[in-house]
Task: inverse folding
């Protein structure tokens, strides 16, 4: 939709505005951070994998295995991540579940359980968590 209006929301050449044809002023596009976090969670959950600009990937498998590991051991690694977060389909609209899925505590748990979960590109996972954390900080203002 943004492209149809003359804006471009991707790199390179990002242009987060379009020109109003009536008064020739810039109209800036501001995305809804809550919606973006849910879109990332839904896309990762549905596709099972996301790749960054470098071709490195993050897998939904990591989250599923962390929940499985927590349930089997009876310990929850100081996270709120439960099977409800993994099977989010009936609660897709709940921002809280999406934000908790990408919380710093889940990132720390994934890092701690790295050997058991066999995460090969832990740095990519950390970058995703940092990006979501920045979005949640933005949401609080």
Result:
């Amino acid at each position: 939709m943004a492209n149809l209006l003359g804006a471009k929301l991707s790199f390179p050449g990002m242009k987060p505005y379009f020109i109003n044809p009536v008064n020739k002023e810039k109209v800036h596009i501001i995305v809804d951070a809550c919606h973006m976090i849910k879109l990332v969670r839904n896309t990762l959950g549905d596709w099972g994998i996301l790749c960054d600009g470098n071709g490195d990937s993050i897998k939904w498998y990591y989250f599923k295995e962390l929940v499985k590991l927590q349930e089997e051991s009876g310990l929850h690694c100081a996270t709120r991540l439960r099977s409800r977060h993994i099977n989010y389909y009936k609660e897709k609209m709940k921002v809280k579940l999406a934000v908790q899925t990408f919380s710093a505590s889940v990132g720390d748990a994934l890092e701690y359980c790295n050997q058991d979960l066999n995460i090969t590109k832990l740095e990519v996972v950390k970058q995703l968590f940092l990006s979501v954390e920045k979005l949640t900080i933005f949401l609080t203002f």
Q: What stands out?
A: The helical segments are 2-5, 33-47, 60-73, 83-86, 95-101, 104-112, 114-117, 122-139. DSSP finds eight helices and four strands in the chain.
